[in-house]
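Sequence in, structure out. First:
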Amino acid sequence: MIKNINTDYFFIAIVFLLLISFGCTKNEPNEIQKDTFVKLFGGAYENLAVDFIKDEESYYLLGNTFNSEEKSNIRLIKTDEFGNRVWEHDFLKDDKQTLGYRIIKLKKQQGIAILGSVETDNDSLFYDVYLLVVDNEGNVLWDKVYNRINNEYGRCIAELEDGGFTLSAVSKSKNQTEIDSLIFFPVDNTGNPKLLYPTIIKGDEIYNICKKQDNKGYYITAKTGSVPEIVILNKEGTKSGILKFSSIQGTIIGLAQDNNSNTYVCGMIDRGENGDNDTFIAKLKNADESIDYDWLKEFGKQGNDKLNNIVVTSNNEILGTGNIENNILQTYNIYVLKTDLNGNVISKSEFGGADNEYGINIIDIDDRFVIEGISCLEKNSMITLLKDNFKTE
């Protein structure tokens, strides 16, 4: 059943939890905080959540924080397992604007890798792909800037078996006279490109990357115009194919695989059966060969709804998050959806107040979900970490 948190309750709860977080020091959290919490992070202006990971008993939240002049920097926040801030670091490259997009925990070498972009020209606002590696305490180990002709924004990163990385980016012309393109290239474990020339294909946007369960490659969600695509990378991180899903009239954003290597995708359907745009989950027939799906289920209400990310849980369930439009307030709430592997709804919930809230990424921990999202408070927005579960009324 849908759990709606009304405006007063939601923000009273936030204020109460903030008082707990900052008003006193506790050696041991209470029982409520162990199971459920809402934490807000950021500065006095716009703060955007973009990605997060869990490593042992800590969360690492990646966001972009803006100042009064709308200049941005990458912000990395470490919390304990209860969402309490341990530290936070801001990253600027040569005092230039930076934007983060993806974060991964490294297995072949020490630390955490962040992929994003950096402004390399103050006058023309020219951006290049930026790769940053830090240790578990946020200290910079090394970084790389990849200079090319157009504006390039880092989008997806995965660690390769040899300790290197595969990187993807979106290239956009400053004068809009050239067609947007997607860039894919592998680098070694110090960030140096392995190929003289990267793979470049026509395209508008890249969203998420998923490692195949058989460890033989990767899938990346992308789109060209209104056509969703999946770009297939081999295990060396270079492009081996691309499938255009014209059968899905919308945008494929998130994707995941189960233990049997079945591939599931989520996103937004244009002009869905429930409203203007619906969320959806689909099971692909064969993500390496097919341009169709076994099944597709739509979810949502009247308005614009979408799922930004999905995971397959240890219980073989699909868990997703995104945003759903509140038709009364004309705002967006965080949306959480759980289905079985056939797309049948098990539970769904929404969380929100008087302003906009967006679910960005989700993970499953001991049958509870943890979400990184964005909470808008009047003219400000905050990076949000939310832990809860599905409760029936």
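Second:
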Amino acid sequence: MTLRIQRSVERTSVVFTLIGRIQAEQLPELQGLLGSEPSDQDIVLDLMYVKLVDRDAVQFLANRERAGAELRNCAAYIREWISQERNATHRKEAQNPADLAR
């Protein structure tokens, strides 16, 4: 199973419905699609039909959400994994200044 992407428009938002698996090899295409949208459009990633993600995909989703995208219909396991990745990133960022002071 691969990733299918369907694009639709809702008022001021562009909704990308993702279907299937999100894996590292699909991320450049997805990034290109998201990057081609006008900056005045809100981005929504609808994950209702996502069945499987890898770590690169989770990091990508976390970064997109941090940049302002909405993750709609995000499965609980994906949401939890995103939270864990964010916490790990925050811990690494918190450790770096201490490492530099040594």
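Remark: Residues 3-94 form a domain with the Transcription Regulator spoIIAA fold (CATH 3.30.750.24).
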